[in-house]
Amino acid sequence: SPRNRSVTPTLTGGGIEALHRHDRYYLEDNVVFLVKDTLFKIPRYILVQESPIFADMFLLPNSSDAEGKVDAAPIRLNQVEVLDFERLLELLYPPRFTKFTTGTDHWGVSEWKSILGLAS
Asked: What is the pTM of this model?
């Protein structure tokens, strides 16, 4: 998939790691996830509505640089592949909610299997 090459340096265990912002799923004033070397910034509302874990997490008082609030402190999804997370986001945030035209109507078995794999 195409990537925006905007790089954000992040401190990780004493070293600096170059990250880039995802071109489709890096939106403003939301929650930041890190999947492999890609940052995703997505709206919280569906996560809060659909997940009691996220709903509770976002209710906790936190600072402006708390986990998930800024690029330097993303919520890390270490066991997730970028393509699988992209597919999940395409399902959760259909085109009418984003400025991009995509859709799930063309998906086959492999796309649905990758999303189901995240659910387990």
From this structure: 0.61
Could you tell me the strand order of the sheet in which 75-76 lies? 7-12, 15-26, 38-42, 31-35, 75-76
Residue 64 DSSP class: T
Q: 């999804």: which residue's tokens?
A: 77
Distance CA 26, CA 64 (A): 18
Q: How far lies 19's CA from each of 4, 11, 29, in Å?
A: 10, 11, 19
Q: Which stretches does DSSP call E strand in the chain? A: 7-12, 15-26, 31-35, 38-42, 75-76
User: What H or E segment, with its residue span, contains residue 10?
Assistant: strand 7-12
**What percent of the chain clears pLDDT 90, i.e. is strictly above it?**
20
- For the stretch 52-111, pLDDT in tens is 888 888 877 776 778 888 899 999 999 999 999 998 888 887 766 555 555 666 778 888
Assigned token pair, 25: 């799923």
